[in-house]
From TrEMBL:
<dbReference type="GO" id="GO:0045936">
    <property type="term" value="P:negative regulation of phosphate metabolic process"/>
</dbReference>
<dbReference type="Pfam" id="PF04198">
    <property type="entry name" value="Sugar-bind"/>
</dbReference>
<dbReference type="InterPro" id="IPR007324">
    <property type="entry name" value="Sugar-bd_dom_put"/>
</dbReference>
<feature type="domain" description="PhoU">
    <location>
        <begin position="1"/>
        <end position="85"/>
    </location>
</feature>
<dbReference type="GO" id="GO:0006817">
    <property type="term" value="P:phosphate ion transport"/>
</dbReference>
<comment type="similarity">
    <text>Belongs to the PhoU family.</text>
</comment>
<dbReference type="InterPro" id="IPR028366">
    <property type="entry name" value="PhoU"/>
</dbReference>
<dbReference type="GO" id="GO:0005737">
    <property type="term" value="C:cytoplasm"/>
</dbReference>
<keyword id="KW-0963">Cytoplasm</keyword>
<keyword id="KW-0592">Phosphate transport</keyword>
<feature type="domain" description="PhoU">
    <location>
        <begin position="102"/>
        <end position="187"/>
    </location>
</feature>
<keyword id="KW-0813">Transport</keyword>
<dbReference type="InterPro" id="IPR026022">
    <property type="entry name" value="PhoU_dom"/>
</dbReference>
<comment type="subunit">
    <text>Homodimer.</text>
</comment>
<protein>
    <recommendedName>
        <fullName>Phosphate-specific transport system accessory protein PhoU</fullName>
    </recommendedName>
</protein>
<feature type="domain" description="Sugar-binding">
    <location>
        <begin position="192"/>
        <end position="264"/>
    </location>
</feature>
<dbReference type="GO" id="GO:0030246">
    <property type="term" value="F:carbohydrate binding"/>
</dbReference>
């Protein structure tokens, strides 16, 4: 399935750059096979969970298959969106320099997709972390294409339609890079049974210190993928209140501790003493 998606991404951008509507249509038609593959993998995974009650490594493997196949299917959807952009084009003014950037961005994203598939097969968490860092370069490509497209449209109104399409295609490629990063996170989970959420929570909520404790192996009935995927969303409101927050579903625990300024605490205690 991964190779099917990698091929779809590559062909969709080649079709866009070369104005090849035939290949673009092939990408669109091919998406049905990718969707079918994702459904089959998901169905098989649920059957194994229900009938075999896997634990520890086996459970993590099944969860990772489900999540990775879902991310791959979404990548294919973005490839289809690029292919549809090719079919929509009807001889509008093109900008070769920006198309070259899009081509380079596509090659880089395809390299990420191919590398993450190898890391997944090897369960190589070190490579997964390195691949995830490659997403920063994808973001740089996007920012450059965005800037150049806006300037081109401002300078020449005839490029508005093609410039808008460039922005869409760059956005689709940037999102594919994000999905590659998601798969990297699941490879780390498969190898270690841990999610590295500390930095993400620090940045999102402005916390000074975060400790995440995640133990998915103590109860085979806990479907840990949902907890892992949506925990941050569930905590978004409650994390702002209190110094320590513990949330538990079954035997899976996320503990988030936030340090408050010690001086502020001391002032509060002194204030209470004065009131007494």
């Amino acid at each position: 399935m991964g190779m099917m998606v990698s091929n779809a991404v590559h062909k969709s951008v080649r079709a866009y750059i070369n104005h090849d509507k035939k290949i673009a249509q092939e990408v669109i038609d091919y998406d049905v096979d990718i969707n079918d593959m994702e459904v089959k993998l998901e169905k098989k995974s649920f059957e194994m969970i229900a009938l075999q009650q896997p634990v520890t490594t086996d459970l993590r493997m099944i969860i990772t298959v489900m999540k990775a196949s879902s991310d791959l299917e979404r990548m294919a959807d973005h490839a289809v969106s690029i292919a549809k952009s090719t079919i929509r084009l009807k001889g509008e003014t093109r900008i070769p320099e920006i198309e070259k950037e899009i081509s380079d961005m596509s090659d880089y994203v395809k390299k990420m997709v191919d590398n993450v598939l190898i890391a997944y097969v090897k369960t190589d968490q070190k490579d997964a972390r390195l691949i995830a860092k490659m997403d920063a370069r994808v973001n740089e490509y996007f920012e450059s294409i965005y800037s150049h497209s806006i300037k081109a449209m401002q300078a020449n109104p005839e490029t508005v339609i093609s410039g808008t399409d460039y922005l869409h295609v760059a956005t689709y490629l940037e999102r594919i890079g994000d999905y590659v990063t998601n798969i990297c996170e699941w490879i780390v989970y498969l190898a270690t049974a841990l999610f590295d959420l500390e930095q993400q929570l620090k940045e999102k909520y402005g916390l000074l210190e975060v400790h995440v404790v995640f133990s998915p192996e103590t109860n085979s009935q806990v479907i840990t993928e949902y907890l892992a995927s949506y925990a941050a969303g569930y905590l978004e409101e409650t994390i702002k209140n209190g110094d320590i927050l513990g949330v538990s579903w079954g035997t899976t625990v996320y503990e988030i501790a936030r340090k408050l300024n010690s001086q502020e605490r001391a002032e509060r205690r002194n204030c209470l003493k004065r009131r007494d």
